[in-house]
Amino acid sequence: METQGSATVQGRRWSWGGLASGIVCLVLLLGGVAVQSAAAGGATDAMRSTIDETLKIIQDKDLKQPSRAEERRRKLEQVVGDRFDYQEMSRRALGAPWNTLSDKDKEEFVALFRNLLITSYADKIETYSGEGVQYLNERTEKEYAEVRTKVLTGKVEIPLDYRMLNKGADWRVYDVVVDGVSLVNNYRGQFSKILRSSSFADLMEQLRKKTVKHNAS
Q: Are 125 and 26 in contact (CB under 8 A)?
């Protein structure tokens, strides 16, 4: 079990994911004011459709009413969830141990990992406003694609790439690379470190505590 000191270190290890997943969703907002577009492909078009849906919710004056805050967040989570493949992200983030899990454990891990990502970006997506996003290009190989973008915010430009997988004729995001750093690989490093020093049960307990903490706030 982790000591209080190591728990503090663990909190810092989670922080990168909060920053990266926050940026992921900021791009959904910024995409509506793109300043330049690359030649559109299937994956790029898929991202654009998600961006359009997100903007409709963000700009809906009725949904901005305090009494509809929960409904607004649910709608945003639904739109993002329809594009982001949380199960694929979970499988890749956990790595080899995924194959040893029961269906029940996989289901719970996906739910907890999804919650970890959502709690990192939920507030940011509702409050952020920025200058724009530049679509650079799209690279496709068989069922895989990467949509390369650049977030423009003030004088800062942040390279951000969406890695996508074609499932049932629909493009789903399975990883996001922020300034050259993979969101999935970063979490895999964190999870692997916990599993080397502890157990899968302990990892799950840490994720459950984060969920409880968020729900209580």
A: yes
Alpha-carbon Rg for the chain, nearest whole angstrom, is: 18
pLDDT tens digits along 168-184: 889 999 999 988 999 99
Pairing of strands 132-141, 144-153: antiparallel
91/97 Cα distance (integer angstroms) = 9
Q: Which residue, 37, 39, 73, is CA-closest to 57?
A: 73
Separation of alpha carbons 189 and 192, rounded Å: 5
Q: List, for residues 75-113, the tens digit of each pLDDT value.
A: 888 888 899 999 999 999 999 999 999 999 999 999 999
Sign of CA dihedral 92, 98, 103, 109: negative
The structure tokens listed for 179 are 């300034």
Residues 127, 132: Cα–Cα separation, whole Å: 15
In sign, the C-alpha dihedral spanning 55, 56, 59, 62 is negative
Contact status, residue 131 vs residue 157, Cβ threshold 8 Å:
no
